Amino acid sequence: MAETPVNLTRSERLARYWVGWHSAVVLCFLIAPILVVLPLSFNAGSYFSYPMAGFSWQWYETALTSPVWQRAFLNSLGIGLASTLIATGLGTLAALGLSRAAFPLRGLIMPLLISPMIIPIVVVAAGFYYVFAPIGLVNSHLGVILAHTALGTPFVVITVTAALLSFDQNLLRAAASLGGNPWTCFRRITLPLISPAVVTGAVFAFATSFDEVIVVLFIGGQEQITVPRQMWNGLRDQINPAILAVATLLVLFAVALFASLNWLRMRSRKAFGQSSQ
Amino acid sequence: MTEPAVNRPALIEPSLRQAHQRARRHESGRALLLVIPLLAFLLLTFIVPTGGLLARSLINDELPGAMPQLSTVLQRWDGQGMPPAEGYPALASELRSAADANELGSVARRLNFYRAEMRSLIFKTARNLPEQADDWRQTLIGIDPRWDEVEIWQLLKRAAHSPTPDYLLTALDARIAPQGGLETLPAEQSIYVPALARTIWISALVSVICLVLGYPVAWLLANLPERQSNRLMLLVIVPFWTSLLVRTTAWYVLLQPNGVINTLLTSLGLVSQPLSLVFNRVGVLIGMTHIMLPFMILAIYSVMKGISPVYLRAARSLGAHPAIAFLRVYLPQSLPGVGAGSFLVFVLSLGYYITPALLGGAGDEMISQLIAMQTNQQLNWGLAGALSLYLVLFTTFFYFVFNRLVGIDRLRFG
């Protein structure tokens, strides 16, 4: 409770005490594996247990200088950026249509647009393989980009539609009454107001692509090694601490993504009040 | 709208209603236009591939494709007694043409799904086929006496029929009995029903564990002062945003026999031998709970954040015992969050692949892994399609329940 509670009974104090400890243990369970494992990436030895043999950057050197990992990083980045770009464009456009009051067949079309989020990923991946293999899209950049784009669009559609639904239509009417044509109104009023949601959707889409391994396993073939795919290979064959170095970098990357998203949200809240999410 | 109204005197004053309807149609057309690019994109890159895979569970084109004449003959045959006489020359000539066209392998593989000896029978017969024969029936039986068995021909007849219920039945460990009618495989031979049950069981277990672990945490986060709550929230958000493979890697490293946890337990003297925590059910449950827990906490938290503390205080001031007040006033208000979290975790767990594949053992395969196995190793696309169909039906069913109860747009993460 936010305010200092008065006259707590014994059982209430006990319950609070219990909730506190329970939560401490659970939160520990959530964060500890990450915090415990990451320091092992600085291990001078090559085993996965404490005490560490000493401090060393060697696994970072291995990870960052090995051509396989370099290619994996570049591939992941390229595929992620391309699919995010397409997903954001198509998703935003669709959200603009979906949020109009006159939109027909919403109950039919919305589930279709969200379906990449619901259908189990293995089914999707097998489906991609089944259809992409005969037309030569397996083992190609384009195939993975198209697949990741499909997986990323629901995030854009959901976040941007939510922002548009809470958007005050009077602003557009006011702008129109002041002589703005529809395009100007869109560019100067709608776009700035929904841009945080667009960026949020884009970040989600990028994160989805950057973390996706199953589709890449199915249709990436030997060529399209991405970071998660390379980690999967490492876990399957013989695990070496270079994976932990990559994992550490990925955690930092995730924290950075999240922090920038939060910063964006704070800024938009300050700039526009509560009207955007 | 297309021509000036003056040219159409009869329509100078269309009723207001018509004008409104026209404007509305125009509007919905424009709204639809904005969605069409995405819809078309998803149709080509997502709906067609997934639908194609699911439809594959019914398609049975190997035998009809490679041996059309035999297929027609067999489809006309009622399956009782021996097949019609023209079946034997058709089989012989089309075995040869299929072998020449390199299609015999796929036919043999298809038939082998019914019975393990069919592949060798097909290849043996094709190898020993003479150029000419007066009585193809005697010749075929001479090559292999099994061609005199009705059951072999009944299997051919089944393979000649498309669409087929075979894959859908196999995925439920059932099949059409040689005499007709359904029969289920004996328990020790069934694979897929146990796997389906296991998938549901593991998903339900993960949901319950997440609920029990997550509910009090969500309560704490929703009721602490903003600043403290935001700080603790980071402990939920950082794992949530961390790559699944990173988290699975972490557990892989932690749970090993000589990993961090076992080393710690042994050095503390709590256990004398390392516990087996990974490559078994324990590993799967720990890993999946870790990955699903943030979904549960965030879903319950977002509902609890909207519950006003006033009701609870009112109940207390009316003399309710705190436990009663919680059970009768707070808990019911938080149920939408509980439902959202549980459904979400359950639905996501049903299709889970990475964690069971990396942390599970031989007895922990979930349906996703079996689908992957059918496509990558067995190349049995029909069965993969059938398993996928059940998984998709199941998932969408629970998703619609979830959406009805909660609504997907109420979830906001990060």
TrEMBL record, chain A:
Per the record's keyword annotation, is Transmembrane helix included, yes or no? yes
Pfam families linked = BPD_transp_1
Any idea which UniProt keywords this protein has? Cell inner membrane, Cell membrane, Membrane, Transmembrane, Transmembrane helix, Transport
Compartment annotation: Cell inner membrane; Cell membrane
Q: Name one GO cellular component term.
A: plasma membrane
Q: Which residues cross the membrane?
A: 21-42, 72-96, 108-132, 144-167, 197-219, 239-264
The processes (GO biological process) annotated in the record are:
transmembrane transport
User: Where's the ABC transmembrane type-1 domain?
Assistant: 73-261
Q: Name the membrane topology term.
A: Multi-pass membrane protein
Q: Which family does it belong to?
A: Belongs to the binding-protein-dependent transport system permease family.
State the protein's name. Polyamine ABC transporter permease
- Please spell out the taxonomic lineage of the organism that makes this protein: Bacteria, Pseudomonadati, Pseudomonadota, Gammaproteobacteria, Oceanospirillales
Automatic annotation (TrEMBL), chain B:
Q: Which Pfam families does the protein's record reference? A: BPD_transp_1
Write the record's keywords in alphabetical order, separated by commas: Cell membrane, Membrane, Transmembrane, Transmembrane helix, Transport
* Membrane disposition: Multi-pass membrane protein
- Per the record, the major location class is membrane
Can you say where in the cell this protein is located? Cell membrane
Domain ABC transmembrane type-1: where?
A: 196-402
Q: Does the keyword Hydrolase apply?
A: no
Task: Name the family the entry cites.
Answer: Belongs to the binding-protein-dependent transport system permease family. CysTW subfamily.
Q: What is this protein called?
A: ABC transporter permease
